[in-house]
Target: non-specific serine/threonine protein kinase
Amino acid sequence: MQSNGFSDNIPDSIGSCSMLSDLNMAQNSLSGEIPHTLGSLPTLNALNLSDNKLSGRIPESLSFLRLSLLDLSNNRLSGRVPLSLSSYNGSFNGNPGLCSMTIKSFNRCMDSPGSHRDTRIFVLCIVFGSLILIASLLFFLYLKKTEKKERRTLRHESWSIKSFRRMSFTEDDIIDSIKEENLIGRGGCGDVYRVVLGDGKELAVKHIRSSNSDDKKNFSSAMPILNEKEGRSKEFETEVQTLSSIRHLNVVKLYCSITSDDSSLLVYEYLPNGSLWDKLHLCKKSNLGWETRYDVALGAAKGLEYLHHGYERPVIHRDVKSSNILLDEFFKPRIADFGLAKILQANNGGLDSTHVVAGTYGYIAPEYGYSSKVNEKCDVYSFGVVLMELVTGKKPIEAEFGESKDIVNWVSNNLKSKESVMEIVDKKIGEMYREDAIKMLRVAILCTARLPGNRPTMRSVVQMIEDAEPCRLMGIVISKESDVKVKEIS
Model:
């Protein structure tokens, strides 16, 4: 359609030619405006309307086209060249009424009064937005500074640190680490946090909760966690008083206590291999051979023996269980969690029992069911359950034991013959150690005698474990009166 003498306007209906790919109407006498409907032609590849008498603005709709050729030169077009079409800068020559902010050959476009007003509004919005942002930032910095000042004042005036060993850290190092991301466990008497010091040393910090305080599940910083108005409870003071003088290889080390009117913290050594429960009942069970299990049993027994007999006044742990026996990097055991420990007072040359019931289901001695008076023999019973875990690999409570049955009942029901006894030994214990495991089972059964008077002391338990050498298999019979009798199986 080039050079055909066409005149008049280009019809808007040209936008309905959806298959049009090349439109060349150059060198005619076309007038009027370029129809905006040209922008709706999806396949249009080339548009040449040069050398006509077209007027008006260049339609913004042409920006939607993917043109390999655009030529609108030598017309009477006016107004702004759409920014998206500026790359076709040679396509608009011969249109003195056009202006552009990017094509240097055209005059720069002059803003209209309305656009000036829009620009002023835009600038004002930027200014006010910046002022609000700066004010918010200054307010935030003020709050942080105030909080930091209050925290510093609180630390210097309210916190009291009592060290029991040589330390390479301050109370600030500990307090700053009491936050959600460092939480590694929850216990009956407090939450435990893992703290890594600047020199790489790891510590375990127990935040003592009062018995009537609610569990705190959502934390954002150290201060909300510590600010619970729990105070220095009698339970906490008892624990600190007891632990501060305990020194034994198989009892977890207490470095210091940090107290204020609001919180109580105990700082222990951190043991990287977790608890005996983790190693026995979770994914790393296969790592525990019998030799390691034996060492754990003997070490834990010595730790409890020290608490019962080596300390100046007997200490009842009250919650002996495999999750409270922690393992160091060499799998050496430490007795942990003395949140419920109580000191038995001497009374006329004897020992007076306490009246506070505590413990974990599956480990609790049967006398808890009819009496609140407990003594060291409750710890002996719980330790016997731990020994059964070591020998059988079972948890204290398993569905296979039956309803209302625990590991003590299950072991007792499988002592009818040598074969049945061998059957309950953990299959992961090597054949050469199975009889040694049976001898350990004998100790466990003595410890879990129903009557407290029939249970050995922890001093006797240590001796029996030390004497656990390969020997002929012994049968174990528990009478209805709960007395323990041993006879050789023929």
The chain is about 30% helix and 20% strand. The CA atoms of residues 63 and 84 lie 6 Å apart.
